[in-house]
Each structure stands twice: as structure tokens, then as C-alpha cells.
Amino acid sequence: MTFHATVLTLYPEMFPGPLGHAIAGRALAEGRWSLDPVNIRDFTTDRHRTVDDTPAGGGAGMVLRVDILAAAVDAQGTGRPVLAMTPRGKPLTQARVRELAAGPGAVILCGRFEGFDERLFEAREVEEVSIGDYVLSGGETAALVLLDACVRLLPGVMGAASSGVEESHESGLLEYPHYTRPQQWEGRTIPEVLRSGDHAKIAAWRQRRAEEDTRLRRPDLWERHVGARVGRPLARGDERE
What we know:
Layout: E1 3-9, H1 22-29, E2 33-39, E3 52-53, E4 63-64, H2 66-74, E5 82-91, H3 94-101, E6 105-110, H4 119-123, E7 127-130, H5 139-151, E8 184-185, E9 188-189, H6 199-217, H7 219-228
Parallel strand pairs: 1-2, 1-6, 5-6, 5-7
Antiparallel strand pairs: 3-4, 8-9
EC number: 2.1.1.228
Protein name: tRNA (guanine-N(1)-)-methyltransferase
Subunit structure: Homodimer.
């Protein structure tokens, strides 16, 4: 089963963009996934190809019309989740990315202007997704982020099957720090444990650093991680909370 992404956008020329390069681009060329950018204006019915109108109740900007959006979504058929990229959505997580990557693909709706007419989400099964607590000029950049996160997890895309296992957010923690040659650089040395050859000690050091860095940098993640381990033995360093 090939992962098939359809992107509903006012700017189809933005795709594949960076997804046409590096591992995502190679995977696209090899047919491990497919991408179909679709212009939302193709579903308009007036000669001006109008997709937006003024906000009900007044205010600045324009709002994407529900009738045009619904027609664009309905034309894609069923069987794949429909995601709308919007800062009002539920934050995208690595767990959700894995679910999407394991499926047949997705239909991704890119917002513009002031956003979507809310009736779209009342009348259609559309999942609102946010990639962070900030606002972009459009959903296309967010769609690229979502697709890059999914594509790299598809079978055969990453060079090593284990490449994605120990990364940040896979276990609920940030990833441990990495080092490589040269051993000495500007007076700084690679930690001795990583040069010891003792795999058990290296694994323990990496786990400890992952926990310490998560606790210091992302206390929100650390609280969820500790909460998920209620009833399990404390890992080294937990007593310092």
C-alpha cells in the first residue's frame, strides 16, 4: 500500500517543494509515496474563481467559503483522514504521525486568510491540526512539516530501520545528545563513557541524559512522562525532582 497524500491548497506550485529533495524526494521518486496537489479554486463556480468572503459579524480579513471547501473535500472520496492545518487545531504529536504513516495517506487542507468557515467542521469529518503555538501565512508550510514527519517513517525510507526508534518524542522524552569526531574540539572532549565501548554504560548514560534534558528543557513533557510511569520503579535521577 502506497502512502498517498492529497493537498488541497490555493498554491499547488508550492509542492513538492522541499519534499522533492533528500530522503522524502528519493522516496517520492521510488514510488514509496505519492503526492497530489489540488487547487481549491478548481471547485469554484463563478468566473472570478472566488474562494473567500468577508467575515460574518465584521472584522478584518477574509474567510474561506464552506461551500468551496466542502466540494474540494468531497471530491477526494473516502478512506483517508482529512486534516485541516490551522493554529486552532490539536497539536500534532509523534504518536499521531505514526498513526498517519501506518495508514493509506491523508487529505490535507491548507488554510489561508482568516481561516475556515466553522461549518466545515460541523458538517464534515475533518481533523483540525496545529504544528505549534504560532501563526503562519498559510497552511502549506504546516502541510510540508506534517508530510515530512510521516514520509520518513514509511517502510524503506530511512536507511536503517532503527533510525527513528530513539529520537525525540518517540518515548515521551527528548533524545540524548550526540557527538562525533574530532574527539577534541576547542578544548571540549566527547564524554568518556561514549568512548568506553561498554554498551550497558552507554545505554544508561543516554537514558539519564534524555531524562535530565527533558526535565530541564521541556517540563511539560517530563510531567507527562513521569505520570505515565506511575507504579513503575523510579529511574535514576527521578529522586531529584
